[in-house]
Structure formats: C-alpha cells, structure tokens
Write a structure and sequence with these properties.
The chain has 493 residues and is of the alpha/beta class. The protein is built from 19 helices and 15 strands.
Length: 493
C-alpha cells in the first residue's frame, strides 16, 4: 500500500513481491483478513436459554454471592431435565455475568514500605510440622516478626496460645536481635489474645500493649478484623517459614529433639540462613531504625498466691508443687509463656515449667506440674497416700516409673505396691540416680520381671570403705637447724 501511493498497481505489486490479483484485492478492500473475519455463530442451541434470563439471572441479582455449583443444584431440583453436564457451561456463564453486571469487588492497594517504617507481628500454628520433644508431640505456635521493607524475620516458639505474654516476649526478642525498632508496629486485632476475657481485663491488656509499643517508641496499629491481606507482609511469610522448617526437618532426617532448647536453636538456624540473603536490604533499613531503650520491659503476668498444706498452689487451673517449707507463705509468681518464677519477697525460690489446663479454658479438670522431690519426705511416712493421689500420674518423673507402678498394682497388693513405688522414688531422690534408676527399671520391665526394691537399693547404694589409719609424726624444732645451717638447700638460685 505504500508503493501504491506513487506507482501503478502492477509496479507496486511487483515491488511488494505479491501477485497482481492480490494487489487488486487490496485496492478493493485494504482491511486485513483478521479484520474481515465475521464472529462465529453458535453451532448448537444454548442449553441455558430456557432458564438463564427467567430464573438464573434473578437469583444472581438477588444474591450475587451464589456459587455456580449451588445454582446447578437448585436448577436440578426445579427441573429434572437440567443435566449435571452443564456445570462447566454454567460456571463460565456466571463468571462472565459477574464480570459484566456483578457487584464491585474489594480493591487491594499495593503499598510502598519505606525502610525503618513498619514491623509486623502474628502467630501461626506449627503443630503440623510434626516436631517431637523426647518422642512426645509438641503442640506449639510460632510468633513471627517481619520488617516490611527488608523482610528480615524472627521466629519464637510459643507453647501456649496467642497471649499478650507470648507477644511481648517474642516481640522484644526480635527487636533486641535486630538491634533497633521500627517506627510502627502492625498486628492483627489480637482477638485471640483477648477472647473470653472480661471487659476490664481486655482493656488492661490493651493498655499494656500500648505501653509496650511506647517503651520502644513504636506506634501500634492493627488491621481490620477478618481482613488478612491488610497484614499481608506477615501472612505470606508464614507459609515460607513453615515450608523452610519442614524442608530443614526432612534434611535433618528426624523431627525429634532432645529438649525444647534444641528445637529453638534449630528454628533460629533456619531463620538465620534466610536472613543472610537479606543482609543488603537490612543494612539499608538498619540506618533508619530507632535505637533501643536501655532495658527490656516486662514480658510476664504477675500474681500473688498462697502455698497450701498440699505443698503447692493453684494458679489458672494448674496446680504447682513447691517445697513444703514454703507452706503458708505468699509467693509472687511471674508467668511467662514457657515457665513460672516464684519469688518470696525479692528472692527467687523456684522456677517451674508452665502448665496448661487439659482441654482448654472451658474444661473442668486442673493441670498439674508436680516434682516428687517436694513431697517424697511425707510419702515415706504415708506411702498409702500414693494409691488415690489426685496427681499421682504426674508425680512419676519418667515413663519407666509409670510402667513400674502399673505392673506393681497389677501383680501385688496395694499396700506392698505403694511401699515399693515410694521406695523407688526415695532411692532416686536420695542417690540422685533418677536417670540411671529409670534405665534399670526399663531393662527389668522389658525382661518381663518385677522390680525388687531391696536389690535396687543395694545396686545404687555406694559401697562402704574403711578409712586407713595414718600416723603423722611431728618433727622436733631442732631438726630445722640443719636446714638453716645450709642456705643453699632452701634458697632458690
């Protein structure tokens, strides 16, 4: 067509390397073949035509959220001839209707995150990772903190629920590991932390959360309840973190750890490897972070309890045993996520793992955190108290002791079984041989024998030794004159 402006049809066709007939056709209609193509007409009757305008569209206009599969079921209920094979056709037609005439959808606005501006916190359930501690399944969550600009992250293993204590401990661990604080801290609505609380208690926790952020100079913000994408900079990394942990567990070859500290170290190593790839962006963001205060703030709940004659106290539906010499005293207890610390005045007298109420907050049963060392002196005088002790199953320090109790009660009279079991616990306490005694009991049980208390006492009792008589002869004073007469014998060169 360019050559045709200055040349004849024959010359322009030759220069464009096309035939004269094609040139004549282009002169008659210069449109491209794709522009002259007519829309394809329907090749078969529309199967939805009898129902679309009269029934389906009114349903969609009345309730735009109806799914195509729901409409399919409704139409099959109304019309027996409506085929189930129309599902894909109905899905395409509903999707097209929603695009042309459906309601407006919520718009997600992508945001720019300046360095040092925002840090985000959230909890995620990690029980499905299949982690075990000494072959015991670990039901836990991960507190997850992330910077919006550099995506630097920190994870902290949480044993309880989404409480303020877990939030405060995890957040402060993250900030001190980071070495600075962002200007804004974004979290969800904290409904899980405040659920089932009285209004005054919830308001108190809100004030504590605001005070925590103020201590680090951060402005607390929250996303709207139920709108997860407003916290998208932390919701997305949840999946990445758990996938990285799952892959690291597969490479490790086992999800079992000796103790909780080993598992926490494992999580720190996985997160640290991911953060190493973000060091360049982190260097940019670190210069914009606020400096940390001189010290951390409180990350625990504090309550006063009275030790009863049961050699323990009940706190939040969990019974904790303490040394009996503390009976009658009032203790100030600090509750962390994974432990409780007991103070008598200003003196720390005891640290115990934090217990949880079985079955959750609405269960009627109490939990127990019991140490047999606290009550063994009284059990020696009253061994039959072990038979119906409410926390008996929690008293045994290891699985081998519990199996021994089951065997003794099944094969011996109750009085003899109680005396033997109390004797074994006393032996473990007196000789500090709990692990060794448990191993010996395990061997005896595996062999199908019944433990003999007397033989085990002989085995773990140290053998007596006779002290030799040593005669010390005191030299006379005149014997030192020989040394004084020869100075070279005692003067160093």
């Amino acid at each position: 067509m360019t050559f045709r402006r200055t040349h004849s049809r024959q010359t322009a066709a030759a220069k464009a390397d096309i035939s004269f007939g094609t040139g004549a056709r282009l002169d008659a209609d210069p449109r491209l073949p794709s522009q002259r193509r007519q829309p394809r007409e329907r090749r078969r009757p529309d199967p939805l035509e009898p129902y679309w305008d009269s029934e389906i569209v009114p349903l969609l206009e009345a309730t735009p959220g109806l799914r195509p599969v729901t409409l399919l079921g409704e139409m099959r209920r109304r019309h027996l001839e409506f085929s189930v094979d129309l599902r894909r056709t109905l899905e395409r037609r509903v999707r097209l209707w929603q695009a042309l005439r459906g309601p407006e959808r919520e718009v997600i606005f992508r945001q720019e995150h300046p360095p040092g501006q925002q840090g985000l916190s959230d909890f995620t359930d990690a029980t499905d990772l299949g982690v075990t501690i000494a072959d015991v399944p670990l039901h836990h969550r991960l507190y997850h903190f992330c910077l919006a600009f550099s995506h630097w992250e920190h994870a902290h293993v949480v044993l309880g629920g989404e409480s303020f204590v877990a939030l405060a401990e995890g957040l402060q661990n993250a900030l001190w590991a980071l070495g600075g604080a962002p200007r804004e801290h974004r979290s969800d609505s904290l409904s899980a932390a405040f659920r089932n609380l009285e209004p005054d208690t919830a308001e108190d926790l809100t004030r504590r959360y605001e005070a925590l952020c103020a201590h680090y100079g951060m402005t607390p913000t929250r996303n709207n309840r139920g709108i997860a994408h407003e916290n998208g900079s932390i919701e997305g990394p949840h999946g990445h973190l758990k996938r990285a942990l799952q892959q690291a567990l597969l490479l490790r070859g086992s999800g079992d750890f000796a103790d909780l500290g080993a598992y926490r170290l494992f999580v720190d190593e996985v997160v640290g490897r991911a953060n190493a790839e973000r060091r360049k962006l982190l260097e940019i963001e670190r210069s914009e972070l606020q400096s940390l205060p001189r010290r951390r703030t409180d990350e625990f709940d504090e309550e006063l309890v009275t030790v009863t004659r049961n050699s323990g106290f009940l706190l939040r539906h969990v019974f904790y045993s303490v040394p009996s010499r503390l009976s009658g005293h009032r203790l100030r207890v600090r509750l962390y996520d994974d432990r409780v610390e007991c103070f008598l005045g200003g003196t720390l007298v005891l640290t115990r793992p934090r217990g949880r109420q079985p079955g959750g907050a609405h269960a009627n049963r109490n939990g127990y955190v019991v140490d047999y060392r606290h009550v063994i002196h009284s059990l020696r005088r009253k061994p039959m108290a072990l038979l119906n002790l409410v926390y008996r199953d929690h008293l045994f320090p290891r699985e081998a002791f519990r199996r021994t109790w089951d065997l003794l009660t099944a094969t011996q009279p109750a009085r003899h079984a109680c005396r033997t079991m109390v004797g074994l616990l006393a032996l473990a306490h007196d000789r500090a041989c709990e692990a060794e005694l448990a191993a010996a009991l395990q061997t005896i049980l595996d062999a199908g024998d019944v433990p003999d208390l007397r033989l085990l006492q002989q085995r773990f009792t140290p053998s007596t030794m006779t002290v030799p008589d040593i005669t010390v002869t005191t030299p006379t004073a005149i014997a030192y004159d020989a040394l004084l007469s020869t100075p070279q014998a005692w003067v160093q060169p």
